[in-house]
Design goal:
Oligomer: single chain
Strand order of the largest sheet: 4-5-3-2-6-7-1-8
Pfam families: HTH_10
Order of helices and strands: EHEEHEEHEEHEHHH
Shape: globular
InterPro entries: HTH_bacterioopsin, RNA_pol_sigma_r3/r4-like, WH-like_DNA-bd_sf
Number of domains: 2
Protein name: Helix-turn-helix domain-containing protein
């Protein structure tokens, strides 16, 4: 049982996301590089291993609200949020990585505050009829990310602080948290330094 933040790898089968289904049906290999979750929509930055063709863009557009080609093999796709995305948006977990394994089967790497949060997250998915399997969990040393830092990073991410066009300013975020702007700036600086160190250590 984890009482501090840890990483979990889960497999979601029969995934309800139409974009993922289309990606699988194209026969192209792709990873979701980034996800922005919202109340009713989800933005996906999809990175294909090879150059994506015009006909594949058309297929994506047929089941999406918005599709924008960023370069030869990277596409921004906005869709209505599926059941999995809605659970993710309202949970305590943070999505680190998503990989399309095969049609309607996705591999998620998640940053989770504690074991209770993971159990609650899995229970919510199961209640939506989503088939999910936990493949692996690995501990992150407690000195790498405190619960407070996790809480603030998660909120900042969900409110769009890290977006290219920020959904919330540092001052507005500080007001929501009930702390001063300089204090929030310092917390974010220390937290992001730890997250970057964790990532660099992980990839070697």
């Amino acid at each position: 049982m984890f009482k501090t933040p840890f990483e979990a790898t889960i497999l979601v089968e029969d995934h309800p996301c139409e974009v993922m289904k289309i990606i699988s049906l194209t026969g192209l290999k792709a990873n979701v590089e980034n996800v922005k979750l919202g109340d009713s929509t989800t933005d996906h930055i999809v990175l294909f291993e090879n150059e994506i063709k015009k006909e594949d863009i058309v297929k994506l557009k047929s089941n999406s609200i918005k599709v924008l080609r960023l370069n030869d093999n990277k596409v921004w796709v906005r869709t209505n949020g599926c059941a999995v995305c809605r659970v993710l948006y309202n949970s305590d977990v943070v999505v680190e990585k998503i990989k399309v394994v095969k049609e309607r089967t996705l591999l998620y790497t998640l940053l989770v505050p504690n074991t209770s949060s993971l159990k609650e997250f899995l229970a919510k998915l199961s209640s939506q009829g989503i088939k999910v399997t936990v493949l692996d969990t690995s501990e992150i040393p407690s000195n790498e990310l405190t619960e407070r830092q996790m809480e603030i990073l998660k909120l900042a991410y969900k409110l769009g602080y890290f977006n290219d066009e920020r959904g919330i300013s540092l001052t507005e975020l500080a007001e929501k948290l009930g702390i001063s702007t300089p204090t929030l700036e310092e917390i974010l600086r220390r937290a992001l330094r730890k997250v970057v160190k964790y990532y660099l250590d992980k990839i070697g």
